[in-house]
Amino acid sequence: MIPLYAQERDYSQYNVLAVDDIPINLLLVQKMLARYNFTLRTAVNGQQALDEVAKQKPDLILLDLMMPEIDGFEVIRRLKENPETADINIVILSALNSNEDIVKGFSLGANDFIMKPIIMERLLTCVTTQFQLIEAKNK
Amino acid sequence: MAKRIAITLLLSLTLPILCAGTESNPFDIDDECYACYSEAELLVGKPGFRDANEKLLHKALEKEDTKAQTLYYVERLKNQIRELRSKQKGIEADDIDPQDDTLAVRMMSELQSIARKFGYPQYYYYAFDLVQNYFYNSHRFVKVAELIQEMQRVAQENNEPYGIWMCYRYLASMYVAQNDFLSAKQYIEMAIDLYNTTSDPTILRQSATRLYCDLADSYPIGSDSVRINIEKAKEHRKQHLDTLRCTYLEAKLSALNKDVAGYKIRRDYCINDKYLNQVSSTARQLFKNIDAIVFAAPGTQPQTDVSGMTRHLREVKYIANIAENYGFETLAFDLEKRLATYYEGEISKSNRIKLAELDATLGNRELSDKVAHESLRAQRASRTVLILILISMFGGLAFSFFHIRRLKRANEKVRLANEAKTRFVQNMSHEVRTPLNAIVGFSQLLSLPDGSFTEEEKNDFANHIVNNSKMLTMLLDDILNTSAMDSGSYRIVYEPSECKFMCEAAISSVEHRLQPGVKLNFLPESEAPCPVNTDPRRVQQILINLLTNACKHTAKGKIDLTYSTRVEPGFIQFSVTDTGTGVPADQAEAIFQRFTKLNEFVQGTGLGLSICREIAGKMGGKVYLDTTYTEGGARFIFSIPTEPPVQTPETK
User: Fold this and answer.
1) What ipTM was estimated for this complex?
2) Which one of B425, B444, B460, B469 would you mutate to disrupt binding with A, by most A Cβ within 10 Å of its Cβ?
3) pLDDT tens profile A22-32
4) What CATH number labels B491-651?
5) In this structure, is residue A72 part of a structural domain?
């Protein structure tokens, strides 16, 4: 069930940040992505996510939308506002599933949208695709 | 001479006896509370009132006397209105600060919600009374009519004869004040009829004296019916105020009949009474004016000051009549003239603009004409015709205004219900997806080829799946329970049960929800068995709900579950106390409403507590937030009778 092209790759140079206010969701993402050797950090709310980004800029953010105070949309807006962080790839992982929310996420600058419940293959292919895009951009 | 002394003696003997019998505590509240109440009552509108009233509240809370607590709110509203009135002295009706009205109406609603909560509908309506008087005294008759309409609506909706009865009385007093005695009489007679035929204890607790006094007042001054109705009023006396009221009417009548001695005795009795204000706020002024006529030296023309009394038209009318009887025709004519000016000036001035406005906005000419026509029949003099047309137009307009408002309100209700439904579906989508995410996700991890995860990890995954499945089940149960309760198909099955067992069962189903480091303690009152005849599944459901809430909102510290049979005889009281985020006091009731969540990011449907309350109610018990618990965190109390309630129509 792991995409063939992704199985043998080395992703150790990548740095990923997963953001969700429900700890069990973070645990699940961690376990699903456990086979890859990239660095995976976590944050449990919008503010913590911004702090983590300031500490060390990640290559990819897996972002929940419904969070207290600073929600996912606001996190995207602030990251895109700052030229330093505007180029971070963002994948939304959310239980919000209306067309309106999806369009809003993309129009703010998200790169992909995964609906909860998360299907593992969908998450893995999405993450590896994002890495490929980053590689292509850096060439 | 001897006869006169006999009357004096009789009066001075019977009156104190009547007072002593009823004045001690007419409200049937705790005696110490009553002492505080009397003190506050005398200070209404004066400095020191607030302290006195706070004292009443503290005493009432200490004695757990809910009626005295309600009286605290009554006094507060009275005082507020008195303060507003003195602030507005000399201000035109149109220039009154609308915030004053908002304040009065807000305090009225506060009193009303307290009265409803504690089950004293009479104070619910009394709140209307006070605010009506407030509007009435500042000549805002449209507002008065609106309040009467509102009151009638509430009374009819709740099927409370007391409210309807009060409506009759208010309508009557409004007509009396407008000199339309025929209409007033009609309403008073309806009120008397209702009084004589009703079985409503709240009405019967009132005395009929007031009604007969009003009826006496509705006849032309000097008519025989006045005397007859005062006699009837005297027969029905129950309280000290009744005696005072009768004596007041008799004083006026004596003055009219040139019974100077009788007038003097009765006047002195009234003037010396500290409750006179409750009978008539202008009584003292009235006596002063009558004195001027009755005791005027021969050949002099008494000067009476009626400017402060004009809003009590009836009183001025009395003075005019008395003046005429005593041969002061010029004075009587002058008073009548002033009354006429007042009718045409004051009443219409403040309302003419409003009327035109209402007329234009509503365009409901036909209805108001019809009502006006109806009232025309009841007219006696051309002057009152004018007033009545105005009043009935206000009435008609207020009615149609209300009708439109009622429609709007119904519309608004539907819109809000729809909104709540949409919010619910959106929220539910999120609520369902969260446990589903864990179930689907961890199942996928478990289905990976061997070697991906250690046994320990796999165990954890399985546990996550089980716990989240339970969560999802609870969620669905909540929704199904709510809908079952709405459709009335909810069953309660009583059977012998044991408290300790129910508590332990509830604890075992929530233990996994405790946040790390939080302790859940079970502290029963004693180890002895505690049998109870109830529906154990429902009790557990409520306990689980309360404990689950405590787990969600408690990040550190502990959660205590206790029960006791000693707090209330015949009841078992469970309590769940946590050291979590707590509930703001002003949200104590809101949290029991459907879809209310204090923190929308904590998981849940917002249905749990409303379900608890409904189930507990069906079992004859109750669930509430203990607002006296202020040590950080929250304490929820849940109590049920040890035996099923005798009447259980819901248990079918």
Assistant:
1) 0.86
2) B444
3) 888 999 999 99
4) 3.30.565.10
5) yes
